[in-house]
Amino acid sequence: MTMSFNEAISREPLKAFSVATFAICLLVLICDGMDAQLLGIVAPKVIEDFGVDRGTFGIAMSAALVGFGFGSWGGGWLGDTIGRRWSLALATVVFSLATIGASWSEGVWDMAAWRLVGGLGFGSAYANAITLAGEWLPERWRSVGVTTLSVGTPAGGLVVASLAPTLVDAFGWRGSFVAIGAGTFLVVFLILALLRDSPSYLMARGKPDEARRAAGKVLSGDVELAPDRHHSDRGGAAVGVFDASNRRLNLGIGIAFAAGTLVAYGILNWSTTFLTAQGFTFEQASYAVSVAGLTSIASSIAAGLLVQRFGSRVVVGGVSASLFLTLLVLAYALEAMPAVPGESYRYMVVALIGLSAAIFSAGIASFYAIMTYGYPSSCRSAGIGFGIFVGRVGAIAASGLGGALIDLGEGSLVPFFAVLCLSALLISAAAFVVDRHVPPARVTKKPAALAGSGLS
User: Fold this and answer.
1) For the structural domain made of 244-442, what CATH number should be given?
2) What gap in Å lies between CA 371 and CA 200, rounded to an integer?
3) Best-predicted range by mean pLDDT among 152-156, 276-280, 430-434?
4) Which Pfam families match (predicted)?
5) What's the pTM?
6) Can you name the residues that pair with 226 across neighbouring β-strands?
C-alpha cells in the first residue's frame, strides 16, 4: 500500500518512539529555558560583581533576545538543509557551551557576547525541536504536542529559579553558569543516540531508503512511502519560506506573532514596574508576575486541545478579542486604583494579569500549531524559525519601549496599554490573513485517501 508518512502514522496508535522523541525535544527546550533565564535570576549578583548600573547591564540582558531571533531563523534553515536532528544537537552544544563561557565574563560586553552566541543556540533549538517532534506525532496528537512543547522554556525558567539560589550559595554566580551549562550539554548525547529525522523530511529530501528505515520505528505494516502532499505542492518541487504560496501564511503569522510577543513581554517585563508605581510592594508585584508565568504554562497546553477541537482560526480569533477586552479592563483597574489598594483590589489586579498571560500564551502556542501545519516539510523548520524571528521583534520592542511608554503617561498607563490593546487586535491577523489553518476535529475526520492532504 502506498501512502505518505503523515497518512500512515495517523492510522497508527501513538508509539513509544514518538513519545520518546517528544519527551527529548521537551527536555531540550526545558534546558534551553534554564540556560536562557539563568542570567535574569542571578543578575543582582552579576551587576554587583561588574560594578555597573542596571541600565548598562540591560545590554547583556537583551543580547540573548537578539541572538534568539537570528538563531531561530538561521537554525531553522539549517534544519531544513542538514536535518532537524543534527541541527538540534548543534544548537544544544552552542547554548550549553555559551552558558559555560559566560562564567568567564569580566564585564558587560563580555557577557553580552556570550549571551548573543547562546541566543543563536536558544533560537535554533526552539525551531528544530518543535518541527522534529511535530513530524513524528500522529495528526490527532500534533496540535497538543506542539503547543505543549512551547511551555518547555518557561518551565525551564521555573526549574532554574528553584536551583539557582542553592548553586549560587555553593559555587557563586560563575559556578552556577558552569553547572547549568554542563548539565544541559549532556542532553546532546540523548539527541544523537535516540532521535532520528522524520520520514516526512527524508522523503522531501529525496532519501526514500532512509525514510523507510526511520518509518519502521512507528509503522507496523508494510507501507510503501510516498512524498507527503501539501497545499503548496507544485509538481513535487520543494518550496522555500518566501515562496509565493506562503505569502499569506508569512504575513499573517508575522504580524500576529510580533503583536503577541509585544503584549507578552510588555506584561511580563514591565508589570513589576507599573504595579509598584501604582502602590504594590515589590513582593506583591513579583507575585503577580509569578502567577502570570504559571497561567502561561497551563494555557499553552490547553491551547492545543482547543485548536484540535475548534480549529486554529476560531482559537486565535477568540484570543485576539478576549485579550483586547481583558487588557482594557486591566488598564481601567490600574487607572482607578486607590493610592493604597486593599487586598481584594490587589487580588483582582493579579487575577487580571494572570488572565492576560493565559490568553496571550494560548495565542502564541496556537501560532506554533499553525506553522507546523502550514509550512511544507521542505521549509518547515525555516518557516517556524521565521515566525520566531519576527516574534523577537515584538519582544525587543516591548523590552526597549515599554519604559518610555510608561514615562510618557506621566503617572498614567494609558499610552502603555493603548499600544498593548492595539497589538491584541493585530493578533487577529492570524485568523483573517493566514490561509492554512489547522481544521477542527470534525473536519479532519475524512476518508483515509484524503487524510494526508493537509500536512506534509
Assistant:
1) 1.20.1250.20
2) 16
3) 430-434
4) MFS_1
5) 0.81
6) 4
